[in-house]
Amino acid sequence: MAGGGPLGAIYEIGALAALAESLEGIDFNELDIYVGVSAGGILGAGLANGITPREMCRMFIDAAGGVAGEATRVEPFDPAMLMRPALAQYWTGMRKLPPLAVQAAWRYATAGRGKGLGALLAATEHLLQAVPTGVFSNQPLRKFLAQVFNQPGRTDDFRALKARLHLIATDLDSGKSVEFGAPGHDAIPISLAATASSALPGLFPPVEIDGRHYVDGALTRTLHASVALKEGADLVLCLNPLVPYDDQAVIDSGGRARRLIDGGLPIVVLQTIRAVIHSRMEIGMRQYGDDYPHADVLLFEPNRADAEMFFTNMFSYSSRRRLCEHAYQKTRAELWKRRHELAPMLDRHGVALDLAVLRDRSKTLVDGLGQRERRAPLPVNGITTRLAETLDDLGRYVRQARDHKAAGQRPPVARKKFARSARAAAID
Q1: Tens of pLDDT along the chain (428 residues)?
Q2: Burial of 236 (0-12, 13-18, 19+ CB in 10 A)
Q3: End-to-end alpha carbon distance in the chain
Q4: Dihedral angle sign, alpha carbons of residues 48, 218, 19, 404
Q5: Distance between CA 367 and CA 402 in Å, rounded?
Q6: Which of 236, 126, 148 is nearest to 195 (CA)?
Q7: Within 10 A of 261 (CB to CB), how many other CB atoms are there?
Q8: With contact defined as beta carbons under 8 Å apart, do 216 and 3 qualify?
């Protein structure tokens, strides 16, 4: 699973949930090897720890739900924790600033003739050493992950896992990839390795581990699927949430394109990063076919015309829920569209597409997440029980009718059933 920040994680959770319920013969918590980069590494560590995609949706998306079935409740993930200032970095920079300023002033004063802008810049370049190596702190993320992985039945130790887990980070001083979880790199906590793998340079400070500093693993490769292939995997499922936005694809699909330049510098930078990362990934995918002809590598990613994926505000609760459901439904649609291509490939590995699940238009992820669990406790009597059941049935019927109408089909007839339920509730 590739990285992509909080938005990428939301997409991957939705896609994972769709894959998990649509692929017969695969248990996503019982795979042989998990390989993750950045946000994908966090989710991979969760799967290896037995957390299902739907449970991850409750944890990371549905702030009201928590994780069902936990003996000790873990507070839901809040993206705001990623925006806490790296105060330690600022303090370190402030301590460095006075001697660096004196040094810069002395160099400029002794520069001799031609004290122009060039001489000033040369004299003050060392002041950059006082600039923090990260704007935001990644300690809240590490603390959160440590809390999750230290719950009963889970582990924060690579060596205690039943499956192999590889979290990829980049060694800052050598520029080389490091596979945390591999022999020789498995004695550190999983939460620490996941934090290092997701330390995006500029935003988060490098993570120090055994005297070395590590940053985001996506700096060297996008997916690192070769790690699983080298381990002998013959069926590799790849999730990549980062695709560049294509306005022409939006127009061709009947949508209304948006000019990215109007979004300012952040959107321009985001589009550039996505284009570079995706281009590099495409080269890697072609190489996998040449180097590992025995293996089948399946890639799932958003469509380039998917404006919802590109422009969603990750700090909006409703937007996160909408995007996760969007990813879930889009992945289901892609599986159905590619069913003739995927079926023989999956069959070689004892896996089948559950076509009945894919045909079921009433299935949802976020809308169907423990609605009865989240409802406030009601008095246990016939009236409230029947009324709750009637409302649940009505909600399912409305969603089915909406989906059938969108597909140009006649809505299902269930009026009599609802009338009987409502009448029975009223009589009670």
Answers
A1: 999 888 899 999 999 999 999 999 999 999 999 999 999 999 999 999 999 999 999 888 865 544 333 344 556 788 888 889 988 888 888 888 888 888 878 777 777 666 677 777 776 777 788 888 999 999 999 999 999 999 999 999 999 999 999 999 999 999 999 999 999 999 999 999 999 999 999 899 999 999 999 999 988 888 899 999 999 999 999 999 999 999 888 888 788 888 889 888 888 988 998 999 899 999 999 999 899 999 999 999 999 888 888 887 766 667 888 899 999 999 999 999 999 999 999 999 999 999 999 999 999 998 655 443 333 333 344 454 455 445 555 655 666 666 656 656 665 554 444 444 444 444 44
A2: buried
A3: 52
A4: positive
A5: 14
A6: 148
A7: 9
A8: yes
b/e per residue 267-303 (b: at least 16 CB within 10 A): beebbeebeebbeebeebbeebeeebeebbbebbbbb
CB 141 within 8 A of CB 188: no
Q: Is 387 exposed, middle or buried (0-12, 13-18, 19+ CB in 10 A)?
A: middle
Quick check: 54 and 369 in contact, CB under 8 A? yes
> Rounded to 5 degrees, what are φ and ψ at 270?
-60, -45
Number of residues written out for the chain: 428
Going by C-beta distance under 8 Å and a sequence separation of 6 or more, which residues neighbour residue 296? 234, 235, 236, 345, 348, 349
Q: With contact defined as beta carbons under 8 Å apart, do 358 and 332 qualify? A: yes
What is the token pair recorded at 139? 């300690």
Contact between residue 34 and residue 163 where contact means Cβ atoms under 8 Å apart: yes
User: What is the rounded distance in angstroms from the CA atom of residue 225 to the CA atom of residue 101?
Assistant: 47
Task: Give yes or no for a contact between 218 and 277, defined as CB atoms under 8 angstroms apart.
Answer: yes
What is the DSSP code string of 266-278? HHHHHHHHHHHHH
Contact between residue 428 and residue 386 where contact means Cβ atoms under 8 Å apart:
yes
The residues with which 34 forms a beta bridge, in sequence order, are 165
The DSSP code for 131 is S
Residue type, 351: V
Q: Which helix (H) or strand (E) holds 382?
A: helix 382-406
Residue with tokens 């959160």: 144
Answering whether pTM is above 0.70, one says: yes
Chain center to CA of 85 = 22
Distance of alpha carbon 216 from its chain centroid, rounded?
14
Token output for 197: 């793998």
